[in-house]
């Protein structure tokens, strides 16, 4: 019984923290969020809902505005898998009669009869099974369904046909009606721990002027308050009523910070929409198919010029900037090259590693115990040619880099492998100061190795974006630089592909 109570409390805490992620945006006058609800809305998708201003609403995969998002939270104490068949099983959501898919269909019929304007999201710490057919039909950047692949014109005997047939017969509808439902569905995995959710909220509360709860306090009052408001019948809030409710509870610590936060995204974080908490966001997602760019020429012709204009505009109006880079390493490096060491701007980076932190070049005093570089310079052939560089902070990419260089870069005469002492991993970079120092020492080493001339560099980076940004700030002193992206998901053949050459 004690274990069951603990599990239920954790599930409630998960739901409450999702609510606060959305509701805190109501304290930001520039946020597109205009209403947030708790335990209200269509049955089966009533845990949390969000309404957006029509002129600033997020877009669906076809660019149509999503005016309302209804979220159903499904928390489990242990992580497991689910698949397309579970969505038609009432027991999977601990229901007696109606499945998740039936509830989604009922909600869609009422709130998005034409398949537009609303999204119905399952947010769970379970994941879609690796071998389940459903996995191939989910966009990794938006967690919506790949409609062209699922509704591909094949018969019921195909993989897509079997999924459609089960769902169609379960709902007693045809493919046309199923397509309207599928347009509105989102199946999102959130494996973030409750402690990490709390750490994320702490940063958000700081920016929104809400009272912060010290980490040493076991209880987190915000979890309970959401359910107290529920008991009082306060199920939905707009900007005014939410501020008043927070004031009555003594949650307002002061005015929101005036820190100007700018976001750049080339992929969508599973639950953290940058538009909800940034002053301005550069959205480059449309240029990519998952992590792969649709047209390689766009790196130079479109992405770099747009990024440069966005960051220069931000820097002209602000000497102090906070950047959130939900973006490829190429864009993080390019951002640093634009806001380089001589830009005169004070830049901090919101970094997601094990936890979310704000990293700055002077956020901590340097510590000699931090991991330092271990360099391995390898000669590839006898000439004074170009240099390949494998930066192995989060992953050791040496083997993949060697394979690419051997087949594609005959002009590279040497390979510098840069590894942290202690090995690559998520904890290899401690803080912003550490990232800054590593970037500076790597740039120094590269310049020492190229005293007589500065042949072009080919950079293969596996590192936190904060490090990559700080390293990019040194690009003017490094000279000609080519960047490369790795196809981690293997959806485009695997391996590396050249992205951007700097300077443009």
UniProtKB/TrEMBL annotation:
All residue ranges annotated as the SMODS-associated and fused to various effectors domain in the record: 304-501
Pfam families, alphabetized: SAVED
Protein name in the entry: SAVED domain-containing protein
Provenance organism: Duganella radicis
